[in-house]
Amino acid sequence: MTRRRAIALIFGVLFVVFVIAAAATLFVVRDRLIAAVDDDLKNSVETTATFLETTGITPEEAADLDIEFSERAIVVLDGRTPTFVVTAGTSTDPLPLPDVSASAIVARVGEPFHADAVEGDLQYRVISTELPDGSYLAVAQPLDAMQSALRALAQALFFALLLVFATLGVIFWLLLRASMRPYNAMVETAGAIADGHLERRVPTEVGDPLLDELAESLNSMLDRIETSFEEKELAEERLRQFVADASHELRTPLTSISGYSELYLSGAATEADEVQTQMTRINGEAARLGRMVDDLLALARLDERRTASRGPVDLAVIVAEAAADHRAAHPDAALVDRVGDTGVAVVDGDRDALRQIVINVLANTVHHTPAGTPVEVSVGADDGSAWVRVSDEGPGMDAETAAHVFDRFYRADKGRARARGNSGLGLSIVSAIVADHGGTIDVESAPGQGTTFTIRFTRLR
Predict the structure, then answer these.
(1) Are residues 315 and 242 located together in one domain of the fold?
(2) What pTM, to 2 d.p., does this model score?
(3) Looking at per-residue confidence, does 126 or 426 come out higher?
(4) Are residues 61 and 142 in the same domain?
């Protein structure tokens, strides 16, 4: 409901209430005034009847009396024709006579009744009584004074209505304006947010619990919206950086392949050893390019949250298998595995993806530690979680490097990692798989003190 409609509704209700109250007031006042007139008429007719009886004055003689002013008209009925003994008003300007019939005087003895004047809109209140001689006496009271009083009261009520409505209008406008201030603030804030000012918030603690609760809910929603926009902008920035890094990383092996191919096609390499070297380099760069494409596809699948079949997976078993594969691929690796008993560290997950985690972390030790560096992989369970820990005694990392170790295409030593065929995506894949399984991965490292990766999942048993 708009402000104008609210004010119109309030004023409409007040108008109806005031009109009903004013009408009731007029009716009550009129009834009381008529009751007072009736009491006066009863007293007057009794007094007049007593006067006529005690004095013995006939109606004709009473009519000849010199009465300069009379509040009431007096009528005597002796037979069938009423005789006006006294007229109301002054002798020089008498009021119109009441139009009373003989039948009304006789039929309504002692019962006050209304009678119109013979001319004009003047009204009378009439009461009659029977005299001892069988005639009837009627006294008529003009109601012009009462009607004037009622008109004055109606005018007073009308002006009071105007005054009350003017006062209430100002009061209601001020109150409504004050009550609408929080809503106006919400509208203003919504407009500012629509213009891009996501930092704006709705004022709270306005004094109304419902409005305070609404403002807090809106602010919570705005916080989430702002966070979502920030995350979206960050995701877009990461996507742009990812595309730029991917383009750069893909261009490097392609450039090598193109360069060696052109060198071979130009006939610059004539010796068998030189041709063998060029073909070996082309094959190596092609293999690295293939691994990089595979890693990118793996990350794309993880980003899309493609749900693979999951079930109970024993971490001890997959770590043992990954360790065996690592030794086969790197015979000179000084790897020690401490998997413990099977059936202890069992989690719900995708077996191949969890095995990929261990393979990638172990491969990371090859890329970033000198040959023969001792590496230990262990499995355990505690407090409802199962964990895999990979520790090496390599050169370690500083805090800045450790903070970015899971970023895509991040390399602490770019040249050395590329020389060993590292795509810069291995640990990013690990982090994505762990997150997809609802787990956590932490890294502890310091220069000269080696590096430890700890991966935790919710334990089934």
Answers:
(1) no
(2) 0.46
(3) 126
(4) yes
